Amino acid sequence: MNSGDLFPSRELDRRFGRLINPDIQFWSPKTWEATVMIGIYGLVTLASLWWLTFIISADQHGQVRGWRRARKLGNPKLSLLSDAATSVPWVLTMSVMGAVGWFIFGRELIDSHWYPELSLLTVTPVAMFSILCCGGLGMAALLESVGRRVTGLVVILAGILPVMVGVILAVSSDDFIALAVWLAGICPVSWPVYGSGVFLSEEGMPRDVARAIPNAFWFWQGVGAILTVWLLSKLKIARKKISDSSKGF
Prior knowledge:
The chain has 249 residues and is mainly α. It has eight helices and no strands. It has helices at residues 8-20, 31-56, 60-72, 88-110, 124-172, 177-184, 190-199, 207-245. It is elongated, with a radius of gyration of 22 Å. The relative contact order is 0.14.
């Protein structure tokens, strides 16, 4: 980290520094590069969490088969290691692990000698856990309660459409940039990117964007937390129905 080899701009400076700007004698990373790296790390972590959640989450048919098998064996409940068991505890565990790794990466990056004037906010680990927890548990609840097809439709409506509309608004007029930030903030994919802008104040960011990102981030985190609790409650009801319907087998 302290060597600077982790920064992409370091390699670019080594290869093309003199061609790009021959007046600069010494390379040093900018604040925006730390923001981008922390955001990308969080985005990759969230995407990995979704992929693992998709693998370990049983749909309704898988749950029915699991309960029927358990009833035939005389088991009153599913084993935690059963394929048909809920993935919620495991997703929660992975969310904690991912948040810890994300925070360690961000802290080591900011505590390096390259950024002596920067520090992560005390609320950073809470925000990181919130991003992964809401994103992961929400995905698990959808997959187990409504299946993969409906989950895919929700992903398109909540994960792709708001970003597309936000981009269209942003490029159409500068007056719509703040609105575009709020709309794009609906998408969970944008949460790590917005979060990295909240953890650190990025230099050179337009005033409207710098003001909109923290407000949009925390608002949608609150909405995401409420939706996650609601989805988990619906999941509990759905799984109980499946359990009760398998008692006759």
